[in-house]
Amino acid sequence: MFDRISIRYKLIVLLGLSAALALLISSVITIYSTYLSESRSSLRVLHQLTDVISENMRAALAFHDGESARTLLAALRADPHIQFAVVHDEAGQPLAEYRAAGGRADVTARLEGVRARIRENADLLRREDGFVEHIEEGSMIVLRPVFFEGKPIGLLAVVSDTRLLWAKIRELVLLQAVTSVVTLVLLLFLSVKLQSMFTRPIMSLIRAMREVARTKNYRVVLESDRRDEFRDLHEGFNAMLADIRERDDRLSRLATTDALTGLANRRHAMEVLQTMVVRARRKAEPVGVIMLDIDAFKKVNDLYGHPAGDLVLQEVAQVLLASAREYDLVARLGGEEFLVVCDGGTSEVTIAVAERIRAGVEARHIEYEPGALLHVTVSLGVHAAVPQSAAGDIEKMIRAADKALYRAKAAGRNRCVVAQEEVG
């Protein structure tokens, strides 16, 4: 399903997920680091309170004065977070204890918990600088030994709840969640804006590709003012179109031109002639047709070889192109036979073109080998008329010019003969 989504929406989703993941990771790190910081801060406050009480508790422990010890512990009710406190004498027996009003935990259970911590850390609590701190679910515990003149005389344990700690954490989580949501919304908004910067050139390229595929117009050039990789993409697309254009032009030339002479081939000549006749019939203008072939061409091939014959065909083609007008059609029909169609050519114009061709070929010096020259002539049949029906006039005009060509050959070659037939 994700594969069917447009790239612009994929980019938005990607940016959104990346932003959400980054915010989640940063939030977790922030909350955890805050938890550690607040935990240390809360324990530090509890330590300070325990230090003050332990200093004041020395006299009560030294004289085993339980009443004074209870009075000192009763001062803890000023702190609503203190749940429980107990002081033990040097024999490990409880001398006094304090329990907050409405405390959730049973005194016996608290005492057992404190004693367990004392047993686990007995060695540490024998040192004057020793202490034990511990945070568990719902409470914090600090154990502090009380010394007098370098000798242990008792142990103080204070238990506080963690409501303040978790209240700060909840506030932080709420603030972090609101901040993350607002940030994510802003990032998504920016993602929508930013994705267009990245996808616009891609979408432009896709539209161009679809347009080229639809119209087959490979002459499109895609412009780009970018300076990044998208410019390379556009240039690559333009280079691909240029290659396709070159290939199509080459194929078109192969399909419409004669490979040896570069003139139009028979198929293309008939297509162009059809267009000329239709236009001439519509405008009531004449079309001139010249059929010609090279005199005694077989003898040229037999005496001088086919390479010399190919050279003669190429030289005659050059004379035809030089003698015909720019907008006339010049084609090789096959072998040594050529066709020239004079667009709008009256009989006089067509005869003039044919005579230029004949004289040009006759005057041409063809060097088929270094220092060896060859001369050839051509015979031409000329026909000019205003077409009356495009469907049949092409064949009639070519047939008339062809008959005139054969009469020119029969009359001795190297001459122009005008057709006597009328096209109607």
From TrEMBL:
Catalytic function, reaction form: 2 GTP = 3',3'-c-di-GMP + 2 diphosphate
EC number, UniProt record: 2.7.7.65
InterPro entries, A to Z: CHASE8, Diguanylate_Cyclase, GGDEF_dom, HAMP_dom, Nucleotide_cyclase, Rev_trsase/Diguanyl_cyclase
Domain of life: Bacteria
Class of this enzyme: transferase
PROSITE patterns, alphabetized: GGDEF, HAMP
Single GO MF descriptor: diguanylate cyclase activity
Name of the protein described by the UniProt record: diguanylate cyclase
Lineage, uppermost ranks: Bacteria, Pseudomonadati, Pseudomonadota, Betaproteobacteria, Rhodocyclales
